[in-house]
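User: Just a sanity check before I run the rest of the batch. Below are the structure tokens for the first item. I only need the designed sequence back.
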């Protein structure tokens, strides 16, 4: 069954993360408002699966990630829960060297990577506090629209731990190393308006208008030439870490691939016929 046929879904056996497909947009909602929408391992794995599905699903042309309630978009990992560990031989320690690093690589790093690598544009609708990994989940998205009451917090220093969830990779590229260090070192609350001035947020709106604004942007993306948007996302993300020759090679390759799509032919035909194009996503 295609995703578009599903009026709404819950993660198996749980309602902590929800998905509905409407008008070509996959709306994914973190649904643990009583816990600041902190993410459990099961929620994380479901988010990754849905983001990966979105890449291949022709019925999905944009993705929105948001949180329920008015207190948290996402406050990071739920530290009170953990997945089952491997069976250990007798006498082995509860945590061996390498366990923690492996947990980070296969956990939140996979989630952030799933957002970055999703072939469809992903919008973060930040309704409230985005802290720790939750802040990095928002920053990994292609576009960020935040409610006026929202705030962003690099909370790691307050807990005496190092940033994770791809934070240093993302933040240094978005605001530069000096400002990134300030945010990491002090862990101060960053109001939405200040985040907008730094370029971390595309738009700040009244909370009552948040879903309407996000819906309008998502609808525009869902009617855009999806493969061209995907190429623009890939090229922009890739340009941050490639040299000029590689960037230009990638650009030329993307151009060749996209010009073979039906949407490209429609765009050129519509231009010649002086009419609005009707893009289908392939």
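Assistant: Here's the designed sequence for the first item:
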């Amino acid at each position: 069954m295609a995703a578009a046929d599903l009026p709404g879904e819950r993660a198996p056996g749980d309602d902590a993360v929800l998905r509905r497909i409407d008008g070509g947009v996959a709306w994914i909602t973190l649904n643990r408002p009583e816990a600041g929408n902190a993410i459990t391992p099961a929620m994380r794995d479901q988010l990754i699966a849905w983001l990966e599905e979105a890449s291949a699903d022709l019925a999905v042309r944009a993705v929105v990630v948001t949180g329920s309630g008015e207190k948290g978009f996402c406050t990071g990992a739920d530290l009170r829960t953990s997945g089952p560990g491997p069976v250990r031989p007798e006498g082995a320690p509860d945590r061996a060297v390498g366990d923690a690093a492996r947990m980070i690589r296969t956990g939140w790093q996979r989630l952030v990577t799933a957002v970055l690598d999703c072939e469809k544009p992903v919008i973060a609708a930040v309704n409230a506090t985005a802290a720790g990994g939750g802040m990095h989940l928002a920053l990994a998205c292609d576009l960020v629209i935040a409610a006026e009451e929202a705030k962003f917090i690099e909370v790691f220093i307050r807990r005496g731990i190092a940033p994770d969830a791809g934070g240093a990779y993302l933040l240094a590229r978005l605001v530069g190393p000096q400002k990134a260090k300030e945010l990491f070192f002090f862990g101060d609350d960053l109001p939405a308006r200040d985040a907008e001035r730094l370029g971390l947020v595309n738009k700040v709106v009244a909370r009552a208008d948040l879903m309407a604004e996000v819906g309008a942007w998502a609808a525009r993306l869902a009617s855009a030439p999806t493969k061209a948007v995907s190429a623009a996302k890939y090229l922009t993300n890739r340009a941050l870490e490639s040299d000029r020759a590689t960037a230009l090679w990638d650009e030329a390759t993307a151009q060749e691939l996209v010009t073979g799509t039906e949407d490209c032919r429609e765009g050129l035909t519509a231009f010649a016929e002086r009419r609005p194009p009707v893009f289908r996503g392939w």
